[in-house]
Structures are given as structure tokens and as C-alpha cells.
């Protein structure tokens, strides 16, 4: 293999590790600086950091792979995500930024829940921390799986070695640099992903000879790859339920801790509008690029008479066969960027829950800031080890793992976050009940031995839909049944609304 690829990847590793070293010198003095970067992120860093940590390896591997297999019917996922991301910026971002600062300076999502409902029992914080730890261990493993597949298919290394290389580099800059390192590297990685997802489909289209030549590759297919209402993998027509399932991915945004924590860290509420414009523009372009990679990649593989063993490696295949090794190295770095940006964010959020919401609360209440930062770093390494262990099953589908974790967070946290920001009458008990019922509904929907028309529940309807609905209904009913006049909660809610109106 040409060493130019290794040179490109080595330069990428040097850049991200250098950012980690810079951030180590800037933000490791206290736990707030380590976990939230001092609430000083600029709009562009917030936007690209949120986008890059959101999209992960599924953007360059999972989504193109789904399009490669099923055709344009998988584009409904992209539409749902785009809508969900937009409303996340509009509904959650500004209010959460004000509330988390104003209500006792919350630096984690469990911290926010506890402060929002004045929960002196700490049950809400503990429960939300457990949800974060369980689902992020699974979610993080999907990124490590993507890294293992990348190094195996591109460099002929063992899958297991790829797991350790991917996790090792991420742990290095996350462990030392904290939130600031994660956010800055996400910005750089977001830029790399943006360029890569424009470059690859454009070059493939050129190689095929234009749009008409590319379209001709689908003419003799038994099923219509370009029809959004037909699953090209089996020729079945998408039902209304199937379309709702794909669109419902957008519901997950309201409950993703690694994404909404960026809104907590932006330097001011007024910057959120700018961040939204940048973030949504980036997202639309990169998603179109991912769709184009899968669709045009299928056409190119078919035109060459090649055999692609794993559809989720189509971006890697195109990078290796169509570009000079130096450019291939850059494109492979884009995959690493997507993978690492999400893993690092998830490691940090999980570490913050283990440190602030469990260690400080239940083990060492009087722990110094220096001790908490040290514990946070240890937790980063421990969570990474667990993720590697979960990723040892090489047959895991990246998109499948992500979909389960995404649904878990969306159903457990999404309604709680949304309703708590807009309804003053929501109670502590309703938050606990909603979180529990949302999580249990998702788990039941995934694992219950129940079928509908021969399909498992999760195959028939994406589990985030029933989970989100059950959580929402539970919150409303329990709130109405347990109305309580906690004047501190009511007064804080009213003052936050006034502050939000003033700042916005």
C-alpha cells in the first residue's frame, strides 16, 4: 500500500492530538471547564461540533450503506433527521442555554433535571445518569465498530487492532483536553467531513459519465432504486408505518445528551441563531453527499462488475479506487473524523455523569475540583474499555446499534427535556415516571417476542415512536395527578422565562 495514505492519516492524528494538548493547558483547572468549556463556544464551533458529534460513522458508513442496499427509500431517515435537528435548534437550544446557567449553573443533563425540579432525593439525577451510562456504552461501541471496519478494509489490519487504534487516539485527546478539545476537534472534523462528502459523490458522478449515465445503471434493476416509496432490497412498497418509522428518527434529537450539551456551552443565547444557520447548512449538504455516495456508489460498483462484501464500506471502497493515495488518506481521515467526533463527545458526557452525578454525589461530596477532573479522566478510559469489549462482535451493523441507542435517548429524555422547558406544571414525579416508561417501552419494543404481520415490533415500527409517545403521555398524566406548589421551582421557571425573553 502507498505510504501517502499513512502520511495523511498521521498528519490528521497529529492535529487532533495537538488540539488535545492545547485544550489541556486551557481548560483543566476545574470540572466546569473540563466538562463544559466554560460556556464559551463560538457559533461556528457550536454548530459544527454539534453536527459532527451527531453524525458519527453512520454518516459516512451507515447511511450510504443503507442507501446502497435499499435505494432512495432510506432517504426518509435523512428527511426526518433534518427536520428534527432544525426544531432542536429552535425549541431546545435557546431555553436550555438560559435554564442550565440560571438554575444553579447545571453542567450535565442529569444536573439540569435535578435543578429544574428541585429534586433533593437525587433520584432523578441517578436515574438519568444510569440511562446515559447504559445507552452511551452501546452508542460508543458503534463508533468503535466503524473504526475496526475502517482499518480492516483499508489497511488489511485486524478488526481488533482497528478497535484499539480508534479508541486509543480518541481517549488520548478527550482524556487530557476535555470538552474544549472535543469541541475544537469536532469543528475541524466537521470541516473534513463536509469536503469529503462533496468530493466523493462528485468524482463518482464524473467517472460514471454524468447523471444520465449514472441513471442508466439502474434501468435493468428488478426494483426501482430511485423510488422513495419502494424498498429496492426486496421490491416491497413502503407502508405508512414504515415511512413514519424512518421519519421518526428526527424525534431523537431532543434527548441526545452529547448534542444538546453543545447548546449549554455556547457563549450566549443570541449566538444560537447564527449557529443554527451554520449547523443546518452543514447538515443539508453532508446528508445529500451521504445519500449521493450510497446511490452513485451502487451505480459505480455495478458498472465495474465488482463485488462489495459489506455495503457499509462503500465510502472506503470509492476512496481507495478513485483517488490518489494522498487524497484517499484525507478521505479516510474524514471517516475517522466522523467516528472520533461522536465517540469523544459520548465518552465525555458519560464521564461527566459518572463523575458529577454519581462519584461526587454518592462517593465523595467534598471532592476537590482537581480530584473530580482526575476521576473524569479515569472514567473516560473506563468507558472506552467497555465500548471496545462490546465492539468485539464484528457482525454488528453500525446503523442498527445507533438506531437502538438513538431511540433509547430520544424516548427517555426527549419528552422530559421538551416539556420541562415549556410547561411550568410538570412535576418531579412525572419526570421520573416518563423517563422510566420511555426507556422500558423502547427495551420492550426491541426485545419482546411479539410479532405483527410476521415482523418483530421494532421491524414493524421504530421503537422511538411508542417510547416517545408513552413518555409524553405519562408526563402529562402524572403531572396532573401530582400537582405540587413548589414555589422555588415555579419562581425559577418564571424568572428563566423572563431572562430568556430579555436575552433573546
Automatic annotation (TrEMBL):
Entry keywords, A to Z: Amino-acid transport, Cell inner membrane, Cell membrane, Ion transport, Membrane, Sodium, Sodium transport, Symport, Transmembrane, Transmembrane helix, Transport
Compartments (UniProt record): Cell inner membrane; Cell membrane
A single Gene Ontology CC term: plasma membrane
The keyword NAD is assigned to this record: no
Protein topology in the membrane: Multi-pass membrane protein
Keyword Nucleotide-binding: no
Transmembrane segments: 6-24, 75-92, 123-141, 161-182, 194-218, 238-261, 282-301, 321-343, 372-392, 398-422, 429-448, 460-481
GO molecular function terms listed in the Swiss-Prot or TrEMBL record: L-proline transmembrane transporter activity; proline:sodium symporter activity; sodium ion binding
Main localization category: membrane
GO biological process per UniProt: proline transport
Catalytic function, reaction form: L-proline(in) + Na(+)(in) = L-proline(out) + Na(+)(out)
UniProt-listed InterPro entries: Na/Glc_symporter_sf (IPR038377), Na/Pro_symporter (IPR011851), Na/solute_symporter (IPR001734), Na/solute_symporter_CS (IPR018212), Sodium:Solute_Symporter (IPR050277)
Protein family: Belongs to the sodium:solute symporter (SSF) (TC 2.A.21) family.
Function description: Catalyzes the sodium-dependent uptake of extracellular L-proline.
Protein known as: Sodium/proline symporter
Organism: Paraglaciecola hydrolytica
